[in-house]
């Protein structure tokens, strides 16, 4: 009832603006502030065509043609502010107003549906009349429409995933420390001495480095400076740990291969310091690659790229959300190429170790 009364009163004001002699005449006279002539020839044609009331012949003031053809003929050329607001006319002298039916797409339970609204736009003040059950809050959750600017959201690792990886890393570090203590406590035992305790220490330390790299690899951050540090430290921790572990294992495998492949009485026996030199050489070359990668990484900045796991979408408030993630470098850049070389080198260490192990798989020790 309240909405109906408002609309009815609004239409009455519009009617007053259209019909009251003081409304359009006064406003038109005030806006133009000129005396416009009625041309007799034009008036005669208008009267003969439509039968409208004629203005007196000759040059007369505009306010004297209240119901004449000149008023009718010139309504559509101007607009004015009346009781109801902004009043405009069409070429045939009728008031222009528009009633627009609006519908909004909404995502409810995954599916999209439409909800209708009504808006009135015939005055300076737009009158928005909602259907039953609709309001500003149902149209937009904040009570006002968005400005159209997408909301940029930077994703990082999920908390559950981070906790899971951190837990595994802590377990791995704990087991590594246990192995380190065990090897040190029983270093004089024959079985431990045959495995070269010093090399065992290096393997365990390398494993600890690799587990520590997990904390930097899944560090949940969206700050550019922290991401830059994360990219550098993670490569150092993981690379050094990998080199120490698999470089030492490769050196041990080489000694086993050298002892049991084509054994001869005068064959040189590899000592622990020989193996340490092998480990140092393997690790040193890997460190050079990591240093080059670090320099290249320090000269570039992490890049924000589109998150392939989350497509852009609209919120319940019709706000567009765009998702992105940090990556350490662009594909094809110098850090990318150096990173690729590092992983190729680390992969070759494992490949050579597998080949040596394959060559010694059928070793027989005579008694």
TrEMBL record:
It comes from the Eukaryota. CDD domains: 7tmC_GABA-B-like. It is found in: Membrane. Residues 161-367 form the G-protein coupled receptors family 3 profile domain. The chain crosses the membrane at residues 163-186, 198-219, 225-251, 272-292, 336-358. It comes from Geodia barretti (Barrett's horny sponge). One of its GO terms (cellular component) is G protein-coupled receptor heterodimeric complex. GO terms for molecular function: G protein-coupled GABA receptor activity. This is Gamma-aminobutyric acid type B receptor subunit 2. The keyword Repeat does not apply.
């Amino acid at each position: 009832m309240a909405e109906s009364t408002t609309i009815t009163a609004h239409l009455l004001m519009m009617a007053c603006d259209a019909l009251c002699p003081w409304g359009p005449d006064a406003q038109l006279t005030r806006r133009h502030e000129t005396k416009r002539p009625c041309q007799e020839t034009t008036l005669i044609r208008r009267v003969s065509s439509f039968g409208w009331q004629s203005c007196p012949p000759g040059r007369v003031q505009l306010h004297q043609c209240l119901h004449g053809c000149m008023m009718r003929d010139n309504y559509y050329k101007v607009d004015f502010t009346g009781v109801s607001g902004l009043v405009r006319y069409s070429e045939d002298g009728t008031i222009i107003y528009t009633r627009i039916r609006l519908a909004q797409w909404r995502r409810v339970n995954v599916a999209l549906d439409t909800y209708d609204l009504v808006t009135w736009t015939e005055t300076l003040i737009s009158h928005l009349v909602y259907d039953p059950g609709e309001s500003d809050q149902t149209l937009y959750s904040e009570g006002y429409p968005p400005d159209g600017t997408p909301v940029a959201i930077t994703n990082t690792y999920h908390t559950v995933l981070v906790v899971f990886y951190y837990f595994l890393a802590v377990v791995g570090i704990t087991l590594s420390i246990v192995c380190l203590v065990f090897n040190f406590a029983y270093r004089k035992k024959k079985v431990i001495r045959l495995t070269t305790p010093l090399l065992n220490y290096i393997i365990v330390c390398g494993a600890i480095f690799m587990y520590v790299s997990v904390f930097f690899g899944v560090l949940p951050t969206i700050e550019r400076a922290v991401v830059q540090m994360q990219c550098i430290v993670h490569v150092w921790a993981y690379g050094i740990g990998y080199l120490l572990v698999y470089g030492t294992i490769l050196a041990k495998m080489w000694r086993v291969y050298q002892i049991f492949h084509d054994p001869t009485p005068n064959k040189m026996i590899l000592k622990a310091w020989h193996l340490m030199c092998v480990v140092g050489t393997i690790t040193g070359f890997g460190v050079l690659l990591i240093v080059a990668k670090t320099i290249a990484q320090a000269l570039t900045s992490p890049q924000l790229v589109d998150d392939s796991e989350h497509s852009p979408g609209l919120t319940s408030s019709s706000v567009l959300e765009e998702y992105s993630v940090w990556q350490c470098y662009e594909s094809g850049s110098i850090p990318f190429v150096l990173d690729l070389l590092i992983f190729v080198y680390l992969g070759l260490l494992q490949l050579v170790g597998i080949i040596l192990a394959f060559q010694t798989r059928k070793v027989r020790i005579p008694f």
